[in-house]
Amino acid sequence: MSEYSNAMLPNAKALSPREILMNAASRGIRYRETVAQRSVAPTPEAIRALEDFCRPVPETGGHPREIIDRLDRLGSPATLTMTGGRYFGFVNGGSLPVTVASNWLATAWDQNCALHVMSPVGATLETVALRWTLDVLRLPKDTSGAFVVGATMANFTSLAAARHAVLKRAGWDADEDGLFGAPPITVFVGAEVHATVRRVLGLLGLGRSRPVELEVDTQGRIRTQDLPKITGPAIVCIQAGNVNTGAFDPATEICAWAKEAAAWVHVDGAFGLWARAAPAVARQAEGFERADSWATDAHKWLNVPYDCGIAMVRDEPALRSAMAMSAAYLPPSGVRDPMHYSPDGSRRARAVDVWAAIEFLGRRGIAELVEGCCAHASRMAVRLAEAGHEVLNDVTLNQVLVAFGDDGRTNRVIAGVQADGVCWCGGTRFQGRDAMRISVSSWATTDSDVEESLASILAVAARAKESRGGYRSSR
Ligand SMILES: Cc1ncc(COP(=O)(O)O)c(C=O)c1O
After folding, report:
1. Structural domain contains residue 150
2. Cβ of 309 below 6 Å from ligand 1
3. Cα-to-centroid distance, 153 and ligand 1 (Å)
4. CATH of the domain at 321
5. Ligand 1 pocket, 297 CB below 6 A?
């Protein structure tokens, strides 16, 4: 045995792994059990207290119990209560308790899921979770894919495969030879393409500003009248779920137009793609199965813990050409090695949580989760409109945009609602207006959460109408 053993780590003998993990588990459980009583936004004092973390590197190591105690004491109050039913910010979703539990267990395993040989369970569950996701989303069965950090990287992974495929058809190997001297690729995006797609296009050398912008309607959907003629290698990026309105591009028409010119169609469906799993709202999401690649998040509407995005690509050879790598220590294995399908190598076994969510909910539970969120969103919209506020979008999914008069007053209401702590909604700018954005995407939201949240929003809006100045919290 070497001179240095684990027993020499500071405090390693002070507590057993059981004591250390039980301490964290019981604190985590207490956190989850008290979400209903917490302010959804942290208080300014809780945020100020974070200063206590900002110390120099300790010269000697600490005690595991004190480390976790301190993390809980300072950290927990400075969280946003995203796991509760009254958080409606940023399309963040919540996390099903069973997926938090699967995540804890997989973290205890500490698997590097890059290769099957490193983690047979991680690799197997990745294959199963991908197959199940495709099935639930009604996408072609023979589609390949990867589990990545989020929809941004899922867009990246898919569009890297797209870049490879369209240039290969033009006789150019982008992955070996790069883009200098390559035939130009024309990229089409809707005028309301998500900012992450532009960022990804920049990373892939296709340019953030270079894409041809297609006109959109009042809900941010691409207009299909007068679509331009496509010549040469081309990629068309469409979206299932506009980040503001939740609207869907008309996929059937766009795919027909693109396919005629052998263009690759990529779908950014970070949250909206899950509408395909929910019969009551699925009609607007039809046609997307004709695309070549799809990006979605499991950490949004499937309600698994952060982070988990999924890239799905029909052309497996294109995905592998863009992503696979070889090295002397990475011999071909004859089984699916996750790292050859995604831009990263070492990674946590994030598909475990997707497997757990689908195993827990089943097809019917996923439909109910999505439909429940949409029903809550439409109730919010109706009640806000009845109270005289202006709902700016057609609420056909889980997103509600509401204005409370002019931009100044709308922003005062948003700040007031956040300070009130009953619920949390963010802001956005939509077609020339500032708006409050309500995104219902958590399993945890109940009817009474909706009622309590509406009461807070309406009371804040009423006070903002009375006073032209700042907003005073009722707490
Ligand atoms: C339509 C759309 N695309 C992409 C993203 C980026 O997702 P992520 O932050 O998980 O990378 C989002 C996030 O809200 C989104 O709504």
Report:
1. yes
2. yes
3. 9
4. 3.40.640.10
5. yes
Residue 55 shares a structural domain with residue 172: no
**Closest C-alpha among 442, 93, 393 to residue 247:** 393
Backbone CA torsion sign across 196, 201, 204, 205: negative
Instruction: Say yes or no: CB of residue 268 within 6 Å of ligand 1.
Output: yes
Same domain, 332 and 267: yes
Q: Is the C-beta atom of 196 inside 6 A of ligand 1? A: yes
Per-residue pLDDT of 208-260, as tens digits, reads: 999 999 999 999 999 999 999 999 999 999 999 999 999 999 999 999 999 99
| Residue 192 to residue 137: CA distance in whole angstroms | 24
DSSP 271-314: TGGGGGG-GGGGGGGTTGGGSSEEEEESSSTT-PPS--EEEEES
Å from CA of 151 to ligand 1 middle: 5
Q: Are residues 312 and 196 in the same domain?
A: yes
Distance 150 CA to ligand 1 centre (A): 7
Confirm whether 391 is domain-assigned: no
Q: Is the pLDDT of residue 329 over 70?
A: yes
Q: How far apart are CA 139 and CA 141, in angstroms?
A: 6
Q: In angstroms, rounded to a whole number, what is the distance separating the alpha carbons of residues 82 and 127?
A: 29
Residue nearest (by alpha carbon) to ligand 1 atom 16: 243
> Does ligand 1 come within 6 angstroms of the Cβ of 270?
yes
With the most atoms of ligand 1 within 8 angstroms of its CB, the residue from 192, 237, 245, 297 to mutate is 297
Tell me the average pLDDT across 406-415: 97
- Which atom of ligand 1 has the smallest separation from the CA of 300? 10
279 and 185, same domain (yes or no): yes
Q: Which atom of ligand 1 is closest in space to residue 153's alpha carbon?
A: 11
- Domain that residue 58 falls in: 14-81
Quote the ligand 1 centre to 55 CA distance (angstroms): 34
| Same domain, residue pair 105 and 43 | no
Whole-number Å distance, alpha carbon 196 to ligand 1 midpoint, is 7
**C-beta 437 within 6 A of ligand 1:** no
For residue 366, being part of any structural domain is answered with no
Asked whether residue 66 falls in the same domain as residue 207, the answer is no
Domain boundary among 357, 385, 417: 357
266 CB near ligand 1 (under 6 Å): no
Extract the runs of DSSP E, i.e. beta strands, from 89-241. Answer: 144-148, 186-190, 212-214, 234-239
Q: Note whether 258 and 138 are same-domain residues.
A: yes
Closest to 273 measured CA to CA, from 249, 257, 255: 249
Judgement on whether residues 213 and 280 belong to the same structural domain of the protein: yes
Number of domains into which the chain is organized? 2
Q: Which of 445, 474, 461, 459 is nearest to 87 (CA)?
A: 445
Q: Convert the pLDDT of each residue in 70-111 to its tens digit.
A: 999 999 999 999 999 999 999 999 999 999 999 999 999 999
pLDDT of 471 above 70: no
